[in-house]
Amino acid sequence: MFAVIKTGGKQYKVKEGDILRVEKLNANEGDTVELETLMISDENGNIQVGNLGKKVIAKVLKHGKGEKIIVFKYMPKKHWQRKKGHRQWFTEIKIEKIES
User: Taking burial as the number of CB atoms within 10 A of a residue's CB, which of 54, 58, 60, 65 is the most buried?
Assistant: First the structure.
């Protein structure tokens, strides 16, 4: 049994027990969140496509920042360069239940 969920502008294929890092959610650690489904497959292999009111329940494990990404820009022969770093916020969630 698996489901396709949408959060943070991205889609994820999940099953019960999966741990994901998604874009930062507005929830505290230990809270449960409900995520919208785009597709659900049950034990028999039947597939339901579309938002049919089904939910995926996940537990928030932690918040944090990802790896640093270096953004380096330069103009050759002009002696101009700029170096920036970026660390994206994330929320780590565990899929607890897929309601089908």
Answer: 58
The phi and psi torsions of 50 (rounded to 5 degrees) equal: 110, 165
Model pLDDT for residues 2-16, shown as the tens digit of each residue: 999 999 999 999 999
Q: Can you give the residue range of the structural domain that contains 83?
A: 2-98
User: In angstroms, rounded to a whole number, what is the distance separating the alpha carbons of residues 23 and 47?
Assistant: 27
Residues 24-61 pLDDT 10s: 999 999 999 999 899 998 888 888 888 777 889 999 99
Q: Which candidate, 20, 29, 51, 55, places its Cα nearest to that of 38? A: 51
List alpha helices for the chain, DSSP H. none
Q: Domains in the chain: how many in total?
A: 1
Determine the length of the chain.
Answer: 100
Q: Which of 54, 68, 63, 51 is nearest to 25 (CA)?
A: 63
| Partner residues linked to 21 by β-bridges | 92
